[in-house]
Specification:
single chain, 113 residues, alpha+beta, Ribosomal Protein S5, domain 2, four-stranded mixed sheet, 3 helices, 4 strands
């Protein structure tokens, strides 16, 4: 995923959590809010409840890979996304995460499932 598509600032995370809308699945929660930036940005929040540092970093790598696949279809939106992992996500595969993320994006009308 390109650095321009990464959400890094704490204030951006807080704004997305407080003003944004959310959709949830058993493994993930997707928050989103419109922004004035030129393109979409994505941030990930993986709690210690999910697992140790190895597991948390793996989750972030897998989710970055999922968003890399969706980059062409999401590039038209000016939206900040925050993906929160739930503990159930720790044991799932890339395909399961991808399927959950695709459903959540479809609920928000960002993609056609």
């Amino acid at each position: 995923m390109k650095p321009v598509h990464r959400l890094k600032e704490n204030r951006d995370f807080r704004r997305t959590f407080s003003r944004g809308k959310s959709f949830a699945s058993p493994r993930l929660v997707l928050y989103w809010t419109p922004t004035r930036n030129g393109t979409f940005r994505v941030g990930f929040s993986v709690s210690k409840k999910v697992g140790n540092a190895v597991v948390r970093n793996r989750m972030k790598r897998l989710l970055r890979e999922c968003f890399t696949q969706y980059e062409p279809s999401l590039s038209q939106y000016r939206v900040d996304f925050v993906v929160v992992c739930r503990p159930a996500a720790a044991t799932c595969s890339l395909q399961e995460l991808d399927r959950d993320l695709q459903r959540l994006l479809a609920k928000g009308n960002f993609m056609v499932s």
